[in-house]
Structure formats: C-alpha cells, structure tokens
Amino acid sequence: MPDTPTAPVILGNEPGSFPRSVLAERHPAIIQQVRDAFPYGPDQHRALDALLKNCTEGAIEPLPLDAPDHDQWAAWGTDSYAGHSWYDVPWLWSESYFYRQLLGAVGYFGPGSWQGIDPFRPFKRAELDAPETDEELAPLDALAAKSPEDRANSLLHGSLWGNRADLGFRLSAVGTESAAQAPVPALVADDSELLWSLLSGTGATLCLVADNAGRELIPDLLLLAHLLDQRRIERAVLHIKPHPYYVSDATTADVVDALHRLTGAPGAAATYGRTLWSAMADGRLAVRAHPFSCAPLPYADMPADLRAEFAAATLTIVKGDLNYRRLVGDRAWDPTTPFADVTAYFPGPVAALRTLKSDVITGLDARTEAALVAAEGQRWRTGGTHALIQVRA
Ligand SMILES: O=P(O)(O)OC[C@@]1(O)O[C@H](CO)[C@@H](O)[C@@H]1O
To answer: What ipTM is given for this predicted complex?
Structure first.
C-alpha cells in the first residue's frame, strides 16, 4: 500500500466493543431465531445447543474431516485458529466461521433431508412479501417521467440505502434511530460523480458484489436493469453468495425470488423485472457464486480467478458493510486514511456503497469526522444512520 501505515486488525475481545457484542449477544440471538423458525429434530437441537456453548464460551474447533469444505476452511484459517477462543481471533474470521458452523448444525451441507434448506429463508421471505416492499416499488411509476440521469441517481441511492435492510442488524435491534433524525449529513462521503464518469464510455461491464437479499437486492437489481436498458452498461455480473450467510445475504435462490417479486408486481416494477429476466436469458446479466464470497478474509487475499474477473470489469460496485470491511481490511484505520490507498491492491476501478454498521471507516475528510464525533460520539460508526459512496478509479 502506498505510504499509508497499516492499522491493527479488529478482534472480538475488547470489552464493551461492538465486535464483542456481536459474538456474545448477536450470535446467540440468531441461533434462537433459527431454532424457532423450523421444526428441527433432536439432532439439530443438540447441534445448536453445542454451537451456542462453543461460540460463546469455548474454543474454535476445525470442521469435521468429512465436511465438503474441510480443506477450504483449513486453508482459510481453521489450521491456525483451532484451539483459540472465538473472541481472540480476527472478528471478520470468527463471524464468518459462526455462519459456517450454524449451517453445519442445521444439516445444510448434508447428507440428509435438511441438505440445502436455507435457515434464514423465512426471514428473507417475510421481508420480500411485506407490504413495505410494494411501497418501495410504487415510486418507480413516477420515476419513469424523469430523465435517465435522474433515474440513475435515484436508483443508485435506492441501492445505497437499501443496505439498511440487513436482517442480522435488525434481529439484534441496534440502530433504531432513523436516518431522518441524524443531525449531521446522512452521506459522509459522496463520490457519485466519479462513479458515473467511469460508466460514461461504451461497452462497459459492471460487477456488482451484492450484499443482502430482499429489500436490498431489489433496488440493486433495479439499478442494473436501468443501466442495461439505457445501454450505460453492456453487461452486468451480479456476485452473490454460494450459500446462506450473515442471515440475509443474497444467494441464487434469493435472486430468483426477487425477480419473481418484480415481474409479479404492478406497474413499472414489472417492466424492470422483465428487462432483467431477458438480460439473464441472453447473458447480459450473469450471476456468479464464487466460494470466496463467503470467505472469512479480506479481498486483498482474493484468488487469481476472481482477481481476473474484477480486473476485466469497467467498474466493480461493492455493496454493504461486511463487503466494505473486506474491501478495506477489517482494521482500526484512522478515519482519514485515504480510501484510494487501502484499495490500491484491487485489480480495477472499485466503488463502495455502504451504510455504516461497524467501526471500520476510511476516506473521511477531517471536518466530516469532527462533525460526526461532535454530534454523536462514536455512534455514527455502527448505527446504520449514515452512508457513503466511495470510489477509487
Ligand atoms: O454487510 P451488511 O449486511 O451491510 O452488514 C452486516 C452487519 O450487520 O454484520 C456485521 C456485524 O455482524 C457488521 O459488519 C454489519 O453490521
């Protein structure tokens, strides 16, 4: 990285910290929610009991030798971290491993009749089917009368703020303050002009590294539909997760559900849905589920094939809080550390669209940081009431 000094990796062991509360409180709450949502049998209840005890009081255990991803996880860190407390290893790693272990406990990886059953599906479906989703789709009718640029900007902001729709975040009931009540600007960095300038040529390929399903994925898809329809991009690649992750992260099944929701909606929403459906059919919109999308590692460690994909894109948009942590490195950066420096390793132009839901932040100007601290102490970092659009060309 240029001349930027590095910063300590965030662990989960600092008393009173947000990461520690996620490990000690959010994860047990998620186990309970999943347990209550399915008529699991005794094996799964026992496995969930064991996971609850292990992830709060125990030491990290490697995956069973016959697990399909045993070797993958050994290379990603179980070889180094087995035997350590969950709190004493990088927080990015322990969170990610928690979701892997939760899927194992409910039989997701099989063999058996629960193989492939997404333990978060009831929450995702409830959100997608909620009347609020219709309320969010209704303004698309009025948007049709606006210029393509205004539409693009509205849809970009829809995609950005859609990132508040994170079920893990809501299940643990933090960040109840609404964006409208925030005393300092909601957007703490806005490089949207630079973002659009990167998509001003012809033949552009846009990679969108998605985050949550439902009410975040829908606006992501609307943005892609508009850009494809306007020929602002020739091709889009939507990176989703190969398996359920962080409660609401989008999988291929969630993309299919979202497309059905759009095509079945009244008004303009259905037109967007049909645009996407045909773009999937002719290859202008592709969906990728790369294993590294669920890796417990920063993007700086991405494998060569993924690096080549991002290198070939005109722009990669990285959505959400977790992806931001992975993009800049889950470290206690000074907030004014340049975003361009911490993303210098990324193989092509990259943009982050994220609402702020964890401590990591880079690329703020000193005045903005001071105003945020004066108004809110450090709550702005995790409350989900602020957002950013940061771009490295
Ligand atoms: O990536 P997303 O959906 O925007 O947010 C994920 C999140 O809720 O999970 C982590 C804590 O568990 C934080 O990074 C963040 O608050």
So the answer is: 0.96
Residue minimizing CA distance to atom 16 of ligand 1: 357
Per-residue pLDDT reduced to its tens digit, 293-332: 999 999 999 999 999 999 999 999 999 999 999 999 999 9
Ligand 1 pocket, residue 322 CB under 6 Å = yes
Pairing of strands 350-355, 387-392: antiparallel
Same domain, 386 and 249: yes
CA 358 to centroid of ligand 1, rounded, Å: 7
pTM score = 0.95
Confirm or reject: Cβ of 168 under 6 Å from ligand 1: yes
Q: How far apart are the CA of 380 and the centre of ligand 1, in A?
A: 14
The CATH number given to whatever domain includes residue 34 is 1.20.930
CB neighbourhood size of 119 (10 A)? 26
CATH code of the domain covering residue 290: 3.40.50.10880
The answer to whether residues 126 and 205 belong to one domain is: yes
- 72-104 tens-digit pLDDT: 999 999 999 999 999 999 999 999 999 999 999
For the four alpha carbons of 378, 379, 384 and 387, in that order, the dihedral sign comes to negative
pLDDT band at 147 (very low <50, low <70, confident <90, very high): very high
Which atom from ligand 1 is nearest to the alpha carbon of 166?
Answer: 3
The pick from 25, 167, 241, 322 for probing ligand 1's pocket by mutation, whose C-beta has the most ligand atoms within 8 angstroms, reads 322
- The answer to whether position 12 is within a domain reads no
**Cβ-proximal residues to 242 (8 Å cutoff; 6+ apart), any chain:** 251, 289, 290, 291, 293, 294
